[in-house]
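Narrative of activities, Objective 1.

The group set out to show that a structural description can be obtained from nothing but a protein's sequence at a throughput compatible with the screening campaign. Below is one input-output pair from the validation batch, recorded exactly as produced.
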Amino acid sequence: MTVNGIQSLFDKICLLSQTYKRLENEKGENYNLFKVIDMTSNETSVHSAFLADLLNPKGLHHMGDTFLKLFTDEFLNDMSFSTETAIVEREKYIGPVTVTTGGRLDIIVTDTDKKAIIIENKIYASDQENQLIRYHNYAEKNTSEHKLFYLSLDGTVHDEDKTAKHDNKELMEEEHYFTISYESDILKWLEQCREKVVDKPLIREGISHYINLIKHLTNQTISKEMEKDLKDLILENPKYIQNLGIIREAINISVVELQRRFWELLKEKMETAGCPVIENGEYRYALDEKEDRINKYYKGNLNNKRYGFEFHVNDCGKYEIRYAVRMDEPMVYGFFIRGTEDNKRKISNDQEFDNIINTIGESLPIYKPDKAGYYLGEIDWDSKQTKFINLQFKKLDSETLSALAQMDETVSKIAYTIKEDIDTLREKTKDLHY
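Output recorded for this entry:
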């Protein structure tokens, strides 16, 4: 297939997409209450709250254990569970965090036989140190039988080494914990729940809005009608079929290059602003040609992330404050500490850094300290005050692609915000010395 042939196919796909978007807008299918009130990714206030209420036999839906029974039938397999007697708790405190115990359980459902369903809910938050190990240890000690679920958008553990391994102890998937996804498992369950309330319009539409939100977060926005037309467009043309491999490779190459251009342009604009990128081998530098990290990011290995850029903020004696931009889902923007002598990152939630954390909280409230202690403050994506664009380079949702289609404008805004925040903390900590 020639370049003109590929261009012709892409033009047809774009035209098809525009047609369906217009129809969806006319029918009001893009209207979603969660988007309207800007509550799409908050794990605690939105997702855990909604799921816990559906699972609760005493939930506001007044459907008894209908939804919980659908869940247990779908996910518990060989474990019996008394849904009629179930009690649902959110953010259950299980003690102060130590290396192997404590924390808060996002959702726990228990029955009178002390059997438990525990759900660790992850939308965009990073894994905490030994998190699954701590929850597993709690369940082993306090329940007669349990299933520990790790729920994420795509059904993968964000950082298995960090959350499920410690010293000689390693939790095994499908034995000690089970992964489930929003994009398929939870969507399927929600569809089943909706079928049970077809004659209860308010509950039905509430679940429908949540289903649409999950489809938005997992980039499943193509309608079945458009999906059929796309398949027909490609599969009814022998030339398109013969060149599917080339077309796929062209898309893969373009996705990698799109991210590479983002980093190159961010580096250029930060240097122009007087904040050059630190390039000294101390961290996973995004544009390291030898490591080829951007290309590896799309190869499926979950460890191929957290690369990016670091910028100097202030020298404070034996410590240096830096600002980092790191690739993750979502991207991480935040302040952290390095030692000036050993160049190693320091645990940022150590008490000796409380003054910096407090300064960030007062001057730059969109940054919050992360629970694992890696950042003095990182962007809180649930904050309505954030000026950053939540770019999703793996998922490539519509918002990300729209922003990257205006690459120069998007990166200029990001660079301006980073420089502004660095200058703010630099001024506030100029006299700080350790």
